[in-house]
């Protein structure tokens, strides 16, 4: 059992719950209910920062292109981008498929939620600044270039489901050894592990805060593995991160949002 913070729909503050991940059960104030009964909002409050090319396989997939113009070398520092407020989505809510787009990339990412203002933190102390971890789907319209800000592809409304909760840092003793799995309609489509990160969690936090401050409530994504699976209209996407949680969403055509969905 792990302890987590969740923001139930219609509430202003987060609640503390106990989660039995293997059993799919949540306990709150002596009552038990299943994951399917969850009606929650995204549990984060600050800015969400994504990280590109932090999985070894994602960088290797570029091949010799990484040595071509404009940079002519592998990245020497973290490559960051923002998932703005309009992208924030939550567990069990629809992901809208834009008109004219056949499928979306499902970007399974471990989210590091900041618990203390972090500026120039050392790698040795970096995890002390972490409040906890959450599951993130860094949704994108498929695109090739990593050299231009992919705003049209990554910053659409609802393109960043987060949740269902934030597990406390202590519950994940080895954040650099957790497995991520993506299921589409119940079929396992991707599996990877944070052991394949170029910059492990503490190193990533140290390198990012060397040039920018992360504040309480901000979320830093460790990155998305190579070969992100594609999902089409009607597909049910389930992302599991070992010891952290399960995030599930359905792809819905933009013109036909599900009841209670994004508008």
UniProtKB/TrEMBL annotation:
InterPro entries: Fumarylacetoacetase-like_C, Fumarylacetoacetase_C_sf, HPA_isomer/decarb_N. One of its GO terms (molecular function) is metal ion binding. Residues 47-252 form the Fumarylacetoacetase-like C-terminal domain. Signal peptide: none annotated. The keyword Cytoplasm does not apply. Keywords: Isomerase, Metal-binding. It comes from the Bacteria. The keyword Transmembrane does not apply. This is 4-hydroxyphenylacetate isomerase. The lineage of its organism: Bacteria, Bacillati, Bacillota, Bacilli, Bacillales.
């Amino acid at each position: 059992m792990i302890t987590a913070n969740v923001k139930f729909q219609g509430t202003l503050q987060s609640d503390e719950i106990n989660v039995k991940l293997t059993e799919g059960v949540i306990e709150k104030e002596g009552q038990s209910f299943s994951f399917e009964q969850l009606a929650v909002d995204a549990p984060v409050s600050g800015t969400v920062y994504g990280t590109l090319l932090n999985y070894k396989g994602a960088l290797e997939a570029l091949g010799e292109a990484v040595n071509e113009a404009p940079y002519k070398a592998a990245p020497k520092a973290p490559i960051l981008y923002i998932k703005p407020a309009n992208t924030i989505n939550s567990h069990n809510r629809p992901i809208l498929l834009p008109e004219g787009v056949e499928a979306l990339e499902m970007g399974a990412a471990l989210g590091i939620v900041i618990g203390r203002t972090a500026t120039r933190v050392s790698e040795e102390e970096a995890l002390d600044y972490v409040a906890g971890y959450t599951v993130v789907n860094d949704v994108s319209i498929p695109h090739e270039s990593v050299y231009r800000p992919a705003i049209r592809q990554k910053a659409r409304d609802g393109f960043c489901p987060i949740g269902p909760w934030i597990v406390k840092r202590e519950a994940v003793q080895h954040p650099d050894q957790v497995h991520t799995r993506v299921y589409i309609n119940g079929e396992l489509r991707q599996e990877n592990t944070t052991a394949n990160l170029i910059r492990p969690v503490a190193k990533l936090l140290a390198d990012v805060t060397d040039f920018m401050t992360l504040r309480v409530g901000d979320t830093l994504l460790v990155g998305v593995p190579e070969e992100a699976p594609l999902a089409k209209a009607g597909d049910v996407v389930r992302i599991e991160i070992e010891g952290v949680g399960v995030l599930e969403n359905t792809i819905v055509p933009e013109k036909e949002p599900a009841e209670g969905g994004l508008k």
